[in-house]
Design brief:
homodimer; 283 residues; alpha/beta; Rossmann fold; six-stranded parallel sheet; four-stranded parallel sheet; 11 helices; 17% strand
Amino acid sequence: MQFMASPGGTLPRRPTIGVFDSGVGGLTVLRALLERIPDADYLYFGDSARLPYGSKSAATVAHYAVGAAHYLQDRGAELLVIACNTATALALDQIKAASRVGVIGVVEPGAQAAAAASRNRRVVVIGTEATVSSHAYRRALEAKGIAAREKACPLFVPLVEEGWVEHPVTEQVARIYLSEAFADDFRESDVLVLGCTHYPLIRSLLGRVAPEHVTIVDSAESTAHAVAEQLQVAPIESVRSHERRAYPRLKFFATDSAEKFRKMGTRFLGHAVEDVEHVDLKE
Amino acid sequence: MQFMASPGGTLPRRPTIGVFDSGVGGLTVLRALLERIPDADYLYFGDSARLPYGSKSAATVAHYAVGAAHYLQDRGAELLVIACNTATALALDQIKAASRVGVIGVVEPGAQAAAAASRNRRVVVIGTEATVSSHAYRRALEAKGIAAREKACPLFVPLVEEGWVEHPVTEQVARIYLSEAFADDFRESDVLVLGCTHYPLIRSLLGRVAPEHVTIVDSAESTAHAVAEQLQVAPIESVRSHERRAYPRLKFFATDSAEKFRKMGTRFLGHAVEDVEHVDLKE
């Protein structure tokens, strides 16, 4: 990377960071990036016409993701963040091979944070069917000497999208999924990795339902941390507030209706989603 | 239509019927067609790489559906059944305009059956968000003098796909959705229309949860009935069994993995899904 940090931690010029996701879920990653690196320009691409990636094959996901990566680079992205766990799990190598700029996915930072947090070297990862089937998290964790159990939780995304983030049904579903995950050899796992961008919205519910000794690792936060490291951005608390002018510029592209993206996106980003452009991405 | 029925009700030659859906859900419509019109050839197109249509905009759905309709006609379909409620609701007119052959959607047959079944002229229709937002069922029912309440039930599809067809969570979700639907002016509705191809799999659960006086109308069955009428196929019970040789030929096309289609499809069709070809549909 060519970005150099000045001593105060501010960047000599604002980097343009491209964030890619299959829809609005990756806005939880953008949210974490905005908190960590506010003085940057962000281009967010949500492939909402073709979501969810979670139920699609590796070849299809790679095809879509590479197209989106090209689009973001053509628009000026100097670093790509693959905010979609499924796209990272299934297509990170292909996206890297097809990109002129640096590419950071969500799996490796999430696995690193989990490895650092686990004392008994046993980690549970929850995600979509496709992320779990790819075993990307398990491979990344095993490479660090950590045993991993991956558990697909396909109902969490629709429950979050239904707005049932604090709801008895979601709690019942979480009890079923987590009791299946934290069982047998993994009963004593001490880390739960949120391996899907929708899950931060039910983080506090999951915290209540998971066994008491469990630390929750959010891949979105871990990824924002990894991006800041790569850009050599100083931790925000080390910079005096007047030195850090936080005017992130945000531009959103959606392959489906801009209006729907705006409406749904607000809940994931935590504030209004404004400048959305509809993109008709030919295959 | 050019198909003429012989007096015994068998067709002089086998029609080729194209069935289109966003994925495997339309296999419940194919299942109903096979029961009603076994002596036909069927081409089934499941646009599984781009499902679900239920969360997409009208323009996107129309674009996808017209492409699939062309594909089926190019392969020899002489009649098109749009098995997807969302595609019918959002794009039937565009598909008809773009097709050389007859096109039958699932909404009108479902609405007709509901109108015939309702004594108090009040009907509840459940479906995906997109089907409900289009108000296609309400328009079709109001044209027949029937008051309709449409209720989106976005969790039913993922619950069915999770395999939780007889499950306490699904029952709890159904109680919530149906109590919201059968309320106020629609407390006394006597018909519940299953306006989504996934719902026949939880038909018996819905039958238990719905108020006792309610008749369930399945759009899949109503559509098969409408297709048989258009092809002038005699009711199966009026044909002596030896006169009706039931050798349907089935060919499936899927835009995502053929293997996934085969695996998931079996539950919807009720028997093995065999001859599946992967199709890479360029936009």
